[in-house]
Amino acid sequence: AAAAAAAAPGYGQSCCLIEDGERCVRPAGNASFSKRVQKSISQKKLKLDIDKSVDLFQLQVNTLRRYKRHYKLQTRPGFNKAQLAETVSRHFRNIPVNEKETLAYFIYMVKSNKSRLDQKSEGGKQLE
Predict the structure, then answer these.
(1) C-alpha closest to that of 119 among 98, 104, 103, 105
(2) Domain Histone deacetylase complex subunit SAP30 Sin3 binding: where (predicted)?
């Protein structure tokens, strides 16, 4: 039973919706806050929005440091976890993403049962 719960969408995560300025306390589901849903919400004049904050404070300090090193983020020496999480979160929110290309690539990788690790061993060089 525990394994089934762990495999459930959003297990251990809370909902990311905000209603009338208060964050939802229900567990996360597998629904999508798509453009169609946003349009329906605005037509019905509901005061419902998505929480755009990215909580990277839950990550380990070493993970945050690896992210900082990978993207060559400049910080003062001796940053604590909260400062590091804020810096990484700010950078993460500002990364431009081509959603259509990303989704197409993701679907291709899922349908072909491949991962980025498969790509690295096949081509001899890692994808960036």
Answers:
(1) 105
(2) 59-111
Helices 61-70 & 81-93 angle (0-180, nearest 10):
50
Domain boundaries, the chain: 17-50, 56-98
Q: Which long-range contacts (CB under 8 A, 24 or more apart) does 13-17 make?
A: 16/50, 16/51, 17/48, 17/49, 17/50, 17/51
- Over residues 20-57, the pLDDT tens digits come to 778 777 776 655 566 677 777 778 777 777 666 666 77
Cα–Cα distance, 57 to 37 (Å, whole number):
29
126 vs 49, 92, 104, 109, CA distance in Å?
38, 22, 19, 15
Count, residues in the chain: 128
